[in-house]
């Protein structure tokens, strides 16, 4: 797919990266923040919207959550793409904390409701590439297919800069750490992914999953974590980094010489901390009762 919408070279091509919305028609805990996001985007529409995964509240078990999330995103009236998160398509089987391993049924549900698991989209001066991190370390046939796709998409992009979207961050601080494979791309798959990206001159790796904004550099690549719109864990970021996490999203400006981003934290987007529930109920919000 190619988007050639006219852009002002001084302002560049505007892209919004939103992540971890956790939408559901039956479990509407985070609807107030989604409503705020919808208003902000309507007031200043970007050229394209990329959803970084976890569209749905509990997509692996309730495919109607995926259907509802797609309805909500499509209603924004923007060109958009999405990549799967663990709450959309499940997790790599060996690292399935919630006992929701990615499988044929969940892959088919994603493809049926949302679209491709991996894709590329060309915009002025840039090739955007989306991948499914649930496949990384899964040993499913689709893992190899996605890997071949990534190499070809990077090799065939010509003079375009490359920005790669993944749901899970590659790593926290140490790119050689094997810890927390449900939070970060598992080590073996991570090494392959980072080597391919760095060797091909990828400029940006954009991710989410951890519900907190961060940025760092690795081998010449900017790795930027989008915050969630849905919910935050206040205690851990305060203890680990001394920062108060707020919900929000990222606005990118892409141009011929590079990319820049702004963290957007709308004043009416509330910091919803669900850890009072998750610490006593399986470490997940998917155990919450319905709340229309």
Strand segment count: 11
How are the strands of the largest sheet arranged? 4-5-6-7-9-8
Number of domains: 1
The level 1 CATH classification is Alpha Beta
Q: DSSP helix count?
A: 8
Q: Which homologous superfamily in CATH is the superfamily?
A: Metallo-dependent phosphatases
Sum up the overall morphology in one term. Answer: globular
Order of helices and strands: EHEHEHHEEHEHEEEHEEH
Rounded mean pLDDT score: 95
What is the level-2 CATH architecture name? 4-Layer Sandwich
SSE inventory with pairings:
Elements: E1 13-18, H1 31-43, E2 48-51, H2 63-74, E3 80-82, H3 86-89, H4 104-113, E4 119-123, E5 126-130, H5 141-155, E6 161-165, H6 187-199, E7 204-207, E8 214-218, E9 221-225, H7 235-241, E10 249-255, E11 258-264, H8 275-278
Parallel strand pairs: 1-2, 2-3, 5-6, 6-7, 7-9
Antiparallel strand pairs: 1-10, 4-5, 8-9, 10-11
Helix pairs in contact: 2-4
How would you sum up this structure, described in words?
The protein has helices at residues 31-43, 63-74, 86-89, 104-113, 141-155, 187-199, 235-241, 275-278; strands at residues 13-18, 48-51, 80-82, 119-123, 126-130, 161-165, 204-207, 214-218, 221-225, 249-255, 258-264. With 292 residues, the protein is an alpha/beta fold. The protein has a single domain (13-287), classed as Metallo-dependent phosphatases (Purple Acid Phosphatase, chain A, domain 2, 4-Layer Sandwich), CATH 3.60.21. Strands 4-5-6-7-9-8 form a six-stranded mixed beta sheet, covered by helices on one side. Strands 3-2-1-10-11 form a five-stranded mixed beta sheet, with no helix packed on it. Strand 8 and strand 9 form a beta hairpin. Mean pLDDT is 95; it is low at 4-9.
């Amino acid at each position: 797919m190619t988007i050639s919408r006219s852009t002002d070279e001084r302002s560049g091509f505007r892209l919004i990266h939103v992540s971890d919305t956790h939408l559901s028609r039956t479990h509407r805990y985070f609807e107030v923040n989604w409503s705020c996001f919808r208003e902000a985007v309507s007031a200043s529409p970007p050229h394209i919207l990329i959803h970084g995964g976890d569209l749905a509240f509990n997509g692996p078990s309730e495919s109607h959550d995926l259907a509802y999330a797609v309805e909500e995103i499509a209603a924004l009236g923007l060109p958009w793409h999405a990549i799967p998160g663990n709450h959309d398509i499940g997790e790599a089987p060996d690292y399935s904390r919630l006992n929701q391993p990615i499988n044929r049924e969940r892959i088919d549900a994603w493809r049926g409701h949302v679209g491709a698991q991996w894709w590329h989209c060309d915009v002025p001066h840039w090739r955007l590439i989306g991948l499914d991190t649930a496949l990384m370390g899964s040993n499913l046939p689709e893992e190899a297919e996605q890997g071949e796709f990534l190499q070809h998409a990077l090799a065939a992009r010509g003079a375009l800069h490359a920005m790669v979207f993944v749901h899970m961050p590659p790593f926290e601080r140490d790119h050689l750490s094997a810890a927390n494979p449900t939070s970060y791309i598992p080590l073996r798959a991570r090494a392959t992914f980072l080597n391919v990206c760095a060797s091909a001159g990828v400029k940006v790796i954009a991710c989410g999953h951890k519900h907190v904004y961060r940025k760092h550099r690795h081998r010449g690549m900017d790795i930027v974590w989008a915050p969630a719109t849905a919910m935050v864990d206040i205690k851990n970021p305060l203890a680990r980094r001394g920062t108060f996490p707020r919900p929000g999203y990222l606005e990118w400006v892409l141009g011929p010489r590079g990319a820049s981003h702004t963290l957007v934290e709308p004043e009416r987007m509330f910091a919803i901390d669900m850890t009072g529930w998750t610490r006593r109920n399986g470490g997940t919000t998917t155990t919450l009762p319905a709340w229309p």
